[in-house]
## 1
Amino acid sequence: MSLFQDFFALIYPNNCMACGNNLFKNEHIICTSCLFHLPKTNYHLTTDNPISQAFWGRTNIDAAAAFYYFTKAGKVQHLVHQLKYKGKKEVGVYIGELYGKELIESSEFSKTEVIIPVPLHPKKEKKRGFNQSEVFASGLSVSMNVPLDTKTLIRTFASETQTRKTRFKRWENVKEIFSLQQAEKLENKHILLVDDVITTGATIEACANLLNTIKGVKINVASIAVASH
């Protein structure tokens, strides 16, 4: 079986989703070199990091973090592109599993009782075939051993693309497009709200503002990456 796998890999090489180089036998999704060199933020280790500060005065969030820094044309952007536009769901799951192992070592994020991904509108999700934030959240759910909730927070309107919008325009675009179903089951829960990439934070803000209407909730935020300015 090993000989067959080696032959198959020779014809159809298994490439690193970050750099494109061939993976060795013991490597999976991302090569060892990229795993070591991808720009981690380590924001989960401190509650007053730049992402958390970006939400101060905007919405009530206990802590916010991202696994990586996102830079244009960088390897992290390539990873996100593989997930979001090439349908490589395994990228999101794997990164979620990796990050979850780090989050459960954090005093703040280890309190998580339920994970909620930022939802896509059903039409958009049907067109894409999946919700990239949910895929990432599913990986987090596995390694953190915390249930995933995709039913309570829903997107009721399909917003326009956020690309090239100003921060205010992004906020205007998403502030009333989400709703809650059977929200009482989240009362007094410690929620981890999950998105793929945080840029202005307008989508997270809109979701958090709605979730904060639920009695006794506490909200943390996690994403694959945060835009590096």
## 2
Amino acid sequence: MAGRLFTVVIPRQPDPTNTLGTDILSKHTADGAASPIPAAMATQLQAKLDEGDAKYTLQKDLDKWKEKYTEERNLLLGLDVNQTSNTEGTVLFYVTSIRDFLLGQFRGAERKLGDWGFIVNSPKGKPQVNIPRNPEKLIKLGQGIIRKHEEDDEASILTSFNMAAMATLVTNADTNNGLAAKANRDKEKATQARNIALGTAKGQNRKTVGTAIYLICSIRDILLGIYRGREQSLGDWGFEVNFNSTTPPPPPPGV
């Protein structure tokens, strides 16, 4: 006789896990008193799905805040896609203008720009002072220029520039950069908390007690007992059941 094998698929990703858990509970609720799933187990599964949903909502909200702070930071710095070093009122505009001014002041002694935080390279003996496009590096350079200006006090050679306005831009950009970084950290924590509740986090498996996947596997086993020989009925509960028919190998000679 042909042997009939089947596999009940248990997801390992958050979204499919949440979908399967929701389908199971919908069927359980629809069956009412006729449901073979213990009420306490269904309640536990609902609690884990609700916990995961709450963390997912928080994750999405934090992602929006991260994007908002990042966009505001980039606009202040002059790093938005629609901005260039010629966009006035940005950190990039000030830093680039000050670099050009200092290169004129210290022609032949370009290494002096290092006092303001600029990195001076000399490929083939020709001085180059590039302006970083990395947000953190640009903020750091802006802070270095402001610090040098304040240390020089009345002797500062940057009096032709509105250094107070530049300082405000740098400070606000740095604040938004910190807020974006914090939102991203909190988002990662929310994502991890969601995964832990569902049982999809690193280090967890189907035997990790108290997770949505653990409860789903318990419910799968209960249903396999109820529907023995009719395993396709698990599809009514949202499970994916894959079947294949195989012919068992012949018995060894003499048996």
